[in-house]
Amino acid sequence: MTALPASGTGKIPHQGGNRSSRLSLYFYSTRTGGFGLRDLWVASRPTLDGKFVAPKNLAPLYGNTDDHLPWISDDERTILFSTTRNGYLARLYIAERATKADAFSLPVPVGGLSTTTSREDRAALANNGQTLHYVSDRPGGAGDKDI
Fold it and tell me: Would you say residue 11 lies in a domain?
């Protein structure tokens, strides 16, 4: 395991990403240099045995809100995350980019989910790109949060 450079805040980053290459780690943190309560970050390394470089904030994804629990596609062109934008407890947003080298588009709410007042987070898109799995506390589930 290769340690990330220290954040200097004593805050622990959460929720990793990119299972295929293992060269990039997407996470959220309250580390110094952020723009909101919690922000989305990425740290990369050139090889599997290389060291991660200092993480960079994922602008333009940031808001002055609580952005957290990122999921990144294997090709690193689609990112889903939970946010408290627009006054909700947690809402799923998505952003995309043409190539890994490009900046992400401005994030937008995931279609079809914005009509609820329930908390929705921890999203993951299935490999077919058509099925979204997420956790929600919508009424009618078996417990506090259901998939």
Answer: no
Q: Which CATH number characterizes residue 41's domain?
A: 2.120.10.30
Give domain status of residue 53, yes or no: yes
- Report pTM: 0.74
The DSSP annotation for 84-102 comes to -GGG-S-EEEEEE-SSTTS
Residue 50 has which token pair?
Answer: 């290389």
Measuring CA to CA, how many Å separate 86 from each of 66, 91, 108, 109, 142? 11, 9, 11, 10, 28
Amino acid identity of 67?
Answer: D
Residue 65: which domain range?
A: 24-136
Q: What is the pLDDT of residues 55-101, one digit of tens each?
A: 988 876 767 778 888 889 888 999 988 888 776 666 788 899 999 99
Residue 128 burial (CB count, 10 A): 6
Number of domains in the chain: 1
